[in-house]
Amino acid sequence: MPTIHDEILDALRHIELTHQVRVLYACESGSRAWGVPSRDSDYDVRFIYIHPSDWYLSIDEGGDVIELPVHDRLDISGWDIRKALRLFRKSNPSMLEWLQSDIVYAESGSAAERIRSLMPAVFSPRTCVQHYLNMARNNFRTELQKDAVKVKSYFYVLRPILACLWIERLGTVPPASLCALQEAILPKGELSREIERLTTRKMAGEELDLEPEAKQLLHHFIHSEIERMQTASETFGKAAAADPTTQLDILFRELLQENAQLR
Asked: Whole-model pTM?
């Protein structure tokens, strides 16, 4: 019987044949990449693809996104390599997270590794912190202020806050894994233990709200860090000193040459 992994690989092969592209890299995103999936979590598959080189030689730009309809817990979408590199140049947090995912479904050649090697040249602490801060603030306001809060909603606030703290303290791209963030950032104590309990409940599929004491502890941490990071985020550097465009252009051309003819 085919596994979910087999289904994902079949879907990626179907995309390659249907759209005449090559998938350079495919990974898991979302809660599974964070290491906190529920029993019924979707598989959020994200990929980077490339067309034959002639496709890019047109006065009109073609579509740069491929998406499949969500089906049977499979959510699959990807970006053309040119779009991916443009967003990478802007320190796009989603692109950085894809490259940091611990769950990789497909990797063609060394494209992902070569893109990854340029991460220090594109990483903008301020861009990423402001992205994660906005995510945490918006999710805190829309999800955690309800009368009954689902367990999974806390992770859409906690992970971006921990990502902000990682950037603040370590100055590098944060990992996708919530556990890695937590171990590096939070000291052992009641808050860390409460997040571990929350993780256990989410992975078990529990959706009930937290007890008042746990809720108060988490809400205090979340609120205080959002308030603090709003001020601290202005002190982060915007970007690396050197413009990475030349390096990315070279990589783009190399990948086009390597994939000039798709078979």
From this structure: 0.93
